[in-house]
Amino acid sequence: MGTWSTGTDEFTCKCGARYKAHYKDFPERDKGTFNCTLCGEEVHSWKGTRDYMKWELMVPE
Ligand SMILES: [Zn+2]
Fold this sequence. Notes:
The protein is an all-beta fold. It has strands at 6-12, 18-35, 42-58. It has one domain. It is built from no helices and 3 strands. The chain is flat, with a radius of gyration of 13 Å. 7% of the residues are buried.
């Protein structure tokens, strides 16, 4: 039982690309990384109980 918190977070790559990611706090520790789909640089890495998923590129208007 228990409530897992979820939400969204925003990250900016070195190349200027902006991403929105959904996160969820899991009871188990996990780790991962996300690399920019445009330049290949690492945008964010995480380790712990918060897992990120559903990365979306935020296209500037
Ligand atoms: Zn990039």
